[in-house]
Amino acid sequence: MAVSNDLVNANIGQLDPRHMYGVTNQDVFRWPAIKDGEKKMLLGLFITTLVMPGILKLLWGEEQAMYVLDNTADNYIFGRQAMSSALARQTHGCYKLGSSQYFNFPLDKALRGLDRDPSNATHNVLKAMYHMRLASPTLNDRFHLEQLSNLTHEAFLPGSNSTPTETGIWSVVHGNFDGV
Where does the Mok11-13/Ags1-like GH beta-sandwich domain start and stop, copy by copy (predicted)? Predict the structure, then answer.
């Protein structure tokens, strides 16, 4: 991205990375709907909040770990709950359509339960990450991102149409470019 995008703000003539990073949007399922989804969502938010430069993107409801899926077809699964009152099935979950879109879709919370929980711990985790980013110039104002090591391998998972999935552990260092 740093090579292919001009990240210089035309108004001020300085480096100004304004790409938005998040882990979801209104056109895909909500991570907390699946098995271990809250942990997966928080890992993604950790990376986008504390590692990547640019603007933080949070879909409303992520701070509450919302998980209801409100589509009406098994080949287009999304979670676009309205901010205002919604139908009971949208508020209370109980998703039963399954998925022809995702292979072995591990639905969990979407199958049952009440969706909205403003006291969910995810809110406090996000609040702590945002505070760290504001309090530390290294976390907030960095653009240099360099890979240190890569202990990964490619796996061909069922249902992936022969597309490899890289899995393992990466390590990186990030900070400022001198003079930028």
Answer: 143-179
